[in-house]
Amino acid sequence: MNKTTTISIVVAIIIIIGLYFIFRSPALPTPTDQNPTTTPLVTGSTASPSVKPAQVEGATTMIGKSIEGRDMIAYNYGTGSIRLLFVGGIHGGYEWNTSLLAYELMDYLAANPEVVPANLKVTIIPVLNPDGLSKVVSKTGAFTASDVSGSESQKVSGRFNANGVDLNRNFDCDWQTKGVWQNKSVSGGEAAFSEPESLAMKNYIESAKPAAVVVWYSAAGGVYSSNCHGGVLPETDTITKVFADASGYPAYKSFDFYATTGDMVNWLAKINIPAVSVLLTNHTSTELTKNKAGLKALLDYYSK
């Protein structure tokens, strides 16, 4: 092989490599790109989806990390000034269907961005207790019912965070070190907001200033108003009825099955943010149709 031939081969290789890197690099989206996606972003993933959901605050907001280092992410839809916040998975793997419902509604909003009125912004936090959810769900981020496994005892243990604290006993309304769940004693943490997950939620709420909050739980089948000794806020009373009428769930002034200390929605009432608990009927169904109707009814109410 002579010198000229060698040089020609080297040049050809350099050109081929350069063309490879040019054509393999995707075009970066512009900051104003607001195309919807048909699937939600995957929590904790660094991979970019093929198309992003409607961008607000970069489409997603990292609100914190769990004890074991899992991401806690808020997903945003719409560009309005009035924010409605929906939260699932505060009881992790024990109430995995509340997180699955959140992901299903994220799919719906991403595929139908016109559903969110121009003056509104919808934020969904699908998993408030990612460490607990990980005990029964075999993947990070969006999942299906087929990804759920484990014994009943594993699901019960997934109710708590990695410190063994019931996060819905760790907020600042009647907080106590020991709380009650059904007929069991559970840990409320060393202090209100002692856990990184509940503290992240507190900080996010105070920063985002939502006009109203819906938190999903299971399982009792109903919409429950929040209250922290100041009576039910008039707006809370209204949105309880709005969601209940649209969804078909019965409406209740309060949750009275047993005493709940450190409850998240009651803390929201304490800081004058209208909030309701929506309890799914069982621990497996997402009751998507009911909750989609409730969500759309709230969007219609706040769009006026």
Topology:
Layout: H1 3-24, E1 60-65, E2 71-77, E3 82-87, H2 96-111, E4 120-125, H3 130-133, H4 152-157, E5 178-181, E6 184-187, H5 196-208, E7 212-218, E8 222-225, H6 234-247, E9 251-252, H7 264-270, E10 275-280, H8 288-302
Parallel strand pairs: 3-4, 3-7, 7-10, 8-9
Antiparallel strand pairs: 1-2, 2-4, 5-6, 8-10
Task: Jot down its keywords.
two-stranded antiparallel ribbon; alpha/beta; 8-stranded mixed beta sheet; disordered N terminus; globular; 304 residues; Aminopeptidase; 10 strands
Helix count from the secondary structure assignment: 8
CATH topology: Aminopeptidase
The stretches of 5 or more residues where confidence is low (pLDDT under 50) are 3-7, 15-56
Q: What number of domains?
A: 1
CATH architecture: 3-Layer(aba) Sandwich
Shape: globular
Average pLDDT metric: 86
Q: Widest sheet: strand order? A: 1-2-4-3-7-10-8-9
Q: Number of DSSP strands?
A: 10
Name of the CATH superfamily: Zn peptidases
